[in-house]
Design brief:
Elements (H helix, E strand, L loop, with lengths): L2 E5 L2 E4 L4 E8 L5 E9 L6 E7 L3 E4 L7 E6 L4 E6 L8 E11 L2 E6 L3 E6 L1
Parallel strand pairs: 2-11
Antiparallel strand pairs: 1-3, 3-8, 4-5, 4-9, 5-6, 7-8, 9-10, 9-11
Length: 119
C-alpha cells in the first residue's frame, strides 16, 4: 500500500517561511515525478511545483522565486521550501507521486496539510 505522509504545515505571518515534507512508503517502484499541489477554499486544486528525476523542476508562476522543491531519492521524500509567503498562499497543500507499473501510470496523494498565511 503506497502512502504519502505530509508534514510541516502551519500558521505563519506574511513574509515568513515554512518547509513541507512528504515521505513516501509502501513501494519498491520509483516514484517519479513527485510534486505539490494546493487547494484554496472555493478554488480548484492547482500544481505548485513538481520534480522529475530528482533534478528537473517546474513551478507555478505565482511561486517562482519564492518556493523551492527538492527530493531525497534514497528516502523517497520530497520537500517544499516556501519563503516570502503571502496570504494568497493559504491553502491545503497535497503531496502527489506517480508510479509507473507495467505501463500504467498511477497517481497517489497525501492527506493534505494546511498552510495559513496571515497578513
Amino acid at each position: 500500500q503506497v502512502q504519502l505522509v505530509e508534514s510541516g504545515g502551519g500558521l505563519v505571518q506574511a513574509g515568513g517561511s515554512l518547509r513541507l515534507s512528504c515521505a513516501a512508503s509502501g513501494t519498491s517502484f520509483s516514484i517519479n515525478p513527485m510534486g505539490w499541489y494546493r487547494q484554496a477554499p472555493g478554488k480548484q486544486r492547482e500544481l505548485v511545483a513538481a520534480i522529475t528525476g530528482g533534478t528537473s523542476t517546474n513551478y507555478a508562476d505565482s511561486v517562482k522565486g519564492r518556493f523551492t522543491i527538492s527530493k531525497e531519492n534514497a528516502k523517497n521524500t520530497v520537500y517544499l521550501q516556501m519563503n516570502s509567503l503571502k496570504p494568497e498562499d493559504t491553502a491545503v497543500y497535497y503531496c502527489n507521486g506517480r508510479i509507473r507499473r507495467f505501463g500504467i501510470m498511477y497517481d497517489y496523494w497525501g492527506q493534505g496539510t494546511q498552510v495559513t498565511v496571515s497578513s
